[in-house]
Design brief:
single chain; 254 residues; alpha+beta; four-stranded antiparallel sheet; three-stranded antiparallel sheet; elongated
Length: 254
C-alpha cells in the first residue's frame, strides 16, 4: 500500500543531472512535502511508529535515501535553520495537501461544552464589577443549598434573561457528547494536544481530572484512527467571567 502513496521522482541521468533532481526535490519540499516523520509525531502527539503504521501507507510522500538527502542539503545554499533541521532528520517527507485530505476523511469530532462570556449578558442596571464580585463571593462560600439558591437569585438579578438561561443551563451540568464539524487541518496544525500532554502541562494527578477540565473548557475531542486528540478552546471556564454550558443547548440559547 505504501507504494501507492509514494511520489515518484525521475532519477538522475545524462540528460537530467543530479543537481537538477536536487533542485526539484528542494522545490517539492518547500512547496508541499514539508513534514518528516518526527514533525508529524509532534503535530499528532504520537510515537513515530504510529506515523509509520498509519500515515506512511495513506498519505502521499517522497523518500530520500541518506546519501541523496545529504546531497540536496549540500546543493542548497539558502536553507533556513528550520528547513535544515527538517531535511537533515528525515527520509520520508509528506505532502501537506494530501495530509489535509487524509485528515478530513478519517477524523471525527465532538465536544460537550460551549464557552460564553457572561459579561456580554450583563443587565443594563448593573456593572461588570458587581458580576465579578458575585463570582468571587460565591467561590469563597461553602456550596450549601442555601448558598446555591442565593447565587441563582443574584445571577438572575445581574444578568439579562438570555444570560441567566445560559447560566442555568451550565449550572445543571447535563453535558453530553455531541458531534461537531471536523476542524480544518490548516487551522489545527500546531494546536493539537493529547490528554497526557495536557495533564503534564497543567499538573493534574489523574487522567480523569485532565479529561474533565478539557471538556469543561470547551475543548473539541478529535478521533483520528486509534488516536484521541484535543483542540483546546482559547477561552477557559475558570478564567474571567467565562461560563461553560451544554453544547446541545447552543442553538436554542445563543
Amino acid at each position: 500500500m505504501e507504494v501507492d502513496h509514494l511520489y515518484t521522482i525521475d532519477s538522475a541521468s545524462d540528460e537530467r543531472p543530479a543537481s537538477v533532481v536536487a533542485k526539484e526535490v528542494l522545490m517539492l519540499f518547500r512547496g508541499d512535502f514539508r513534514y518528516n516523520i518526527l514533525d508529524l509525531s509532534r503535530l499528532l502527539c504520537c510515537r513515530r511508529d504510529w506515523i509509520e503504521d498509519n500515515i506512511l501507507a495513506n498519505v502521499l510522500h517522497i523518500h530520500l535515501n541518506r546519501f541523496f538527502r545529504d546531497y540536496v542539503i549540500a546543493q542548497a545554499d539558502d536553507l533556513s535553520d528550520a528547513e535544515f533541521a527538517s531535511l537533515s532528520k528525515g527520509h520520508y517527507f509528506f505532502s501537506e495537501r494530501d495530509l489535509a485530505r487524509y485528515w478530513s476523511e478519517n477524523t471525527s469530532a465532538d465536544k460537550k461544552t460551549e464557552i460564553v462570556d457572561l459579561a456580554h449578558y450583563l443587565s443594563p442596571n448593573h456593572s461588570l464589577s458587581e458580576l465579578e464580585t458575585e463570582k468571587k463571593r460565591h467561590l469563597a462560600c461553602l456550596r450549601q443549598g442555601r448558598e446555591k439558591a442565593l447565587h441563582r437569585e443574584n445571577m438572575a438579578e445581574l444578568l439579562t434573561e438570555q444570560g441567566f438561561e445560559l447560566f442555568l443551563s451550565g449550572s445543571q451540568r447535563s453535558f453530553e457528547w455531541r458531534g461537531v464539524a471536523v476542524p480544518d487541518w490548516y487551522n489545527v496544525r500546531g494546536k493539537l494536544i493529547s490528554e497526557a500532554i495536557y495533564r503534564g502541562q497543567n499538573g493534574y494527578t489523574t487522567s480523569s481530572s485532565a479529561h474533565v477540565r478539557l471538556y469543561m473548557s470547551g475543548a473539541t475531542r478529535i478521533k483520528l484512527g486509534s488516536r484521541t486528540l484535543w483542540l483546546p478552546n482559547d477561552a477557559h471556564a475558570e478564567d474571567g467571567l467565562f461560563w461553560a454550558f451544554p453544547v446541545q443547548a447552543h442553538g436554542s440559547l445563543l
